[in-house]
TrEMBL record:
Keywords: Membrane, Transmembrane, Transmembrane helix. This is Peptidase. It comes from Nocardia mangyaensis. The chain crosses the membrane at residues 21-43.
């Protein structure tokens, strides 16, 4: 029995009428965190003298402060907004992952802590374990704080953005270690616990792939791959993952080409993200996950002309662009039925 079409309320909504996650816009940004801290601080007007609150550590019930140098810039940025909670979570790497939020978002930390181990395992199952598996997860306490924490080169994430991954400076070819994911304060309320777990897997994929990803690479590959990893092995259907795409497919509108970068902004962005996911899911299904990962590494080296992408398809997949698109569209027809 086919599923009825699921409606989406558009780019500025993260969830459908029944509360399931439909779309989570993410940004992959590179910024020198230690050098940008001052620019990232936004002090609320009602705060008096900057008397920094003491963070409350939550390590096996201990109330002792966590002494980790990675916390220094985060404390400086968050504490003007109020006391913070810090949890150190063993994440399978040499260092612990750090989870940071204000007391009002303790429930968000509970979900992230519970899902972190599984999310890291899911990403590693596709990408391998050679990546920073001890990132910092930060839940902003207010829209103003979220904007401050994600401001990059004069621009900042708005309330429409669910989460942002940030990476500090690193030597090309090495594994970045100064990485954090900043969550919108309303993310869990809007998408629920399951949606927050999906968002975590998506952003961790960006963290894992950062070392081999050059800015300007095709977004259909970067975002489609991250969403593929986030959604694989989950108990979700095609139409639940891609409701906007499903509606158009059932109306007879098939993609004519891979999604262009410009389509990832504006009111049609949900369709772009879902279509990018479907392209990567098709490659994984037809050619294997290892081949999908190889294609990612081939295309994530910077801006790619159409000819360069065509060469990558021939080299990695053994098919032309036309053959790839024909196979993808046939696959889409079968999944949208």
């Amino acid at each position: 029995m086919t599923e009825p079409p699921r409606r989406t309320s558009g780019f500025r909504s993260w969830f459908s009428a029944n509360g399931r996650l439909e779309f989570a816009l993410t940004l992959v940004s590179v910024t020198l965190l230690t050098g940008a801290c001052a620019a990232l601080i936004l002090v609320p007007r009602n705060v008096g003298g900057l008397q920094l609150a003491t963070d409350e550590a939550e390590v096996l019930g201990s109330t002792e402060a966590i002494d980790d140098p990675r916390l220094t810039p985060v404390r400086r940025e968050l504490q003007p907004f109020g006391p913070i909670l810090v949890r150190a979570v063993a994440a399978g790497d040499s260092a612990d992952a750090l989870l940071v939020a204000h007391p009002g978002h303790r429930a968000d930390l509970d979900v992230l802590e519970q899902e972190l181990g599984s999310a890291i395992a899911q990403v590693s199952a596709v990408w391998g374990t050679e990546w920073n598996r001890a990132p910092m997860l930060v839940v902003a306490g207010s829209p103003a704080e979220f904007t401050a924490l994600t401001r990059v080169a004069g621009a900042a994430a708005t309330a429409d953005v669910a989460a942002v991954s940030l990476t500090g400076s690193y030597v090309p070819g090495s594994t970045p270690t100064d990485q954090r994911i900043v969550f919108n304060p309303d993310a869990r309320r809007r998408v629920g616990d399951e949606g927050l777990a999906t968002l975590l897997r998506h952003e961790l994929t960006h963290v894992a792939t950062r070392a081999v990803t050059t800015d300007g690479s095709p977004l259909w590959m970067l975002e489609g791959f991250a969403e593929y990893v986030a959604q694989r092995a989950q108990d979700t259907t095609f139409s639940q993952i891609a409701p906007t795409l499903t509606t158009r497919l059932r109306a007879g509108a098939l993609p004519t080409d891979l999604v262009a970068d410009a389509e990832f902004t504006g009111t049609d962005a949900p369709y772009a993200y879902e279509t990018a996911w479907s392209a990567c899911a098709f490659v994984a299904d037809q050619y294997g996950e290892h081949t999908l990962t190889t294609l990612y590494k081939r295309l994530a080296t910077g801006p790619q002309s159409a000819a360069a992408q065509d060469a990558a398809f021939t080299e990695v997949l053994g098919v032309s662009r036309a053959e790839l698109l024909d196979g993808w569209r046939s696959w889409l027809r079968g999944h949208a039925a």
